[in-house]
Request: fold
Amino acid sequence: MRNPVYLLVALGIGCASAGARRTETANPAARPPASVSQAAAESASVDRAQYPSTYRRHPNPPVLIRNAIVMTAAGQEIRNGSIVLQDGRIVAVGEKVDAPAGAVVVDGTGKYLTPGLIDDHSHLGVYAAPGTDAESDGNEATNPITAEVWAEHSFWPQDPQIPLAIAGGITTIQALPGSANLIGGRSAILKLIPARTVQEMKFPGARYGLKMACGENPKRVYGRRGGPSTRMGNMAGYRSAFSQAEAYRRKWDTWNKDKKGDPPERNLRLETLAEVLRGNIYVQNHCYRADEMAQMVDLAHEFGFKIRSFHHAVESYKIADLLAKEGTSVSVWADWWGFKEEAMDGIQQNAALNQQAGGRPLIHSDSPSGIQRLNQEAAKAMYAGQRAGIPITRDQALRWITVNPAWTLGLDSIVGTLEPGKMADVVVWSGDPFSVYTKAVQVYNEGWLVYDRNDPAHQPRTDFELGQVPAAGSDR
Amino acid sequence: MIAVLLAQTIAVTGGTVYPVSGPKIANATVLIRDGKIAAVGTSVVVPSDATRIDAAGKWVTPGLIDGGGQMGLVEIGAVAGTRDGSLATDSVAASFNVAEGLNPASVLIPVTRIEGITTALAAPAGHLISGQAVLIDLEGATIEQMLVKSPVGLVANLSEAAKDEAGGSRAGVSARLRRLFRDALEYERRKADFNRAQMQPLAAAAPDLEALLPVLHGRLPLIANAERRSDIETALRLAKEFQLKLILAGAAEGWEIAGEIAAAGVPVLVQPLDNIPSYDSLGVRYENAALLAKAGVKVVLLETDTHNARNLRQQAGNAVSYGMSWDQALRAVTLSPSEVFGVADRYGSLEPGKVANVVVWSGDPFEFTTEVDHVIIRGKEVPLRSRQTELFQRYKTLPPKY
Reply:
């Protein structure tokens, strides 16, 4: 598996911020993406490029946004701050910056700036609006183990939910398969931009995620069609799959050493799992209950991989110490609970308690509606923590929707903070992003103004919307 | 004697009071006696035996009312045994009143009320005629104690979802409703014939036809779920034909015909944060509530996720963000639902004689920074505890003490 390294080099990813490096050292599983391709080239189970990203940075003039409150997600909140975006990168952040010639100047008076928001749990494009069976492409619910399916092969770039999420300040998503299966398939890490094909949206160099699911959903879906029908059946299912993957990996790694003779036969299912074992694909694990997450940690230990994030994790606060020690992030909602039995113990302080325990919480949406206001969801979770006496800072809460999900996707050296060298993914907010009355007014994705609330020329519309969904502000 | 023992006087003093029925009053007192509001104003004399709640620097409003959801009728969404809000067997469930399905011990009730929602609609769902909705206070050990009004409306579906109950066409839905309404009136005229089995079969069972009569006589509102503009227009047409007292629910594309809805005097229940298009609601948008209100429609704001009915506050804040005035939004979660559900003589504002559902907030009720300091339901302060606060207490330091 070759990654388009040239793009990363062109972006100067090598000079990522010190903050991001600290993040990486904190967890040995985190490596800068450049090394991913190296590792992959040595040991992958396939010797050709697969479904490469065709993402290209949109050409833009430099942009200077000045006199705003700049929330960096890297520790600072700069009053009267300015930022310069050039060639897709943040080149300067601070009270005094030098603007390049020809820069578009945006007056940020009264506005707040944050990094582009990142949702590490979305089903945009795979469960597209208008929500018909024809557009239901998120669960390959034909077998409990479908590691061979890839969300990008379902993703519909004309999903009208995409522009809505962009208008909410989202610049990167992880589009995941659903949770019907024990192992649901590969995720797609995407720049959230208007595009004709998913390939044009694929975040260059990003590792794939592997969706896995605990608990009720696989049991419910397969209980009467061959199993698993119990939680112990779930565990046996993962173990069986990964033990096959171990053997498969050995076969390929041996062949890769000298490439003598015929290569082993490819098995798409085991190929993905072998990449998990090699650390090249991150496990994104839907799991609600604390006791089940502890089981999954053991499973990961048995097969020598890391679970990058527990998703939903409504009970993660009960084992926040264990998860912090394990270096697994928790992707949680601010307040969802009760829609099923394994969600009954959800509490509003979940993110805050994980933060308090030294863990890496983040707020995800899992919802085409919630993705439009991740800032509000983070605000709820932050204030719930503060009211309960947990001193969550604004910077920490902002990290819940920026650099922490970036870390979960392995992209925290590239996006997630407003620091020189980072990709120019920036949101201009009408006010404090933690207020219910605040809206994103401008969204830059790698320097490209993909959304401007005050300019219809920068309000992308999908093909689906043309001629059948009234444009914002129209009266039909 | 018991009544005397329970008599309780509470004075909420010094806050900025939002009576909703009138302009806000700075540094005012709300006096509560025997479950009712006794006085509101700046010159209220506080009796010496009153329990005082110091609300200086705080905001005081009526308890919020969520006009959506299934409070008390659903405990765990995916566990059928805990759901009582839908009659699976009957597509015309007009006689199905949800009241006896209510669970006063539901853990959702404390979770919701400690965030300032004191009253909620408990509405049946599904089918063509879902049944009768009731209004409940989020306090009380028995169903009788919780009920504010039963029924407050008969729920019907004119959205895409109802087509399955009517042969697969929207035109089938309206045709079936018309037949039901006509048969109910026919049944009323010829009860004697019906009882002697001297009538053609009717469109529904006698108890359901009987239950339609208050609606057909304009005594009970028909709460019609309709999203598409044409379906809303059909609902308006039916209401005119049969002289119904109509409440529109959902009304995703209502903004497109806001003037028409206003002219018909029909109130609308709206969830402000709905904006995901479907073929039933291609025109759905955040500005719906504001555009309807601007046209003069009486708007009630909803949070339809029963477990997170507490997010009614966030819904209202976003309605403001997308064009409603703040005062309109507060009214749309207090006095307007009281009017629409026929309890404005008792609920929805801070006025003498009204039921004392009162919330003391640290600030703007719609803002995330705001916390709830006191919740008073029917004149009694409720403890700010829920199953969720207990879970938090148990796990705030690890390992927990079991």
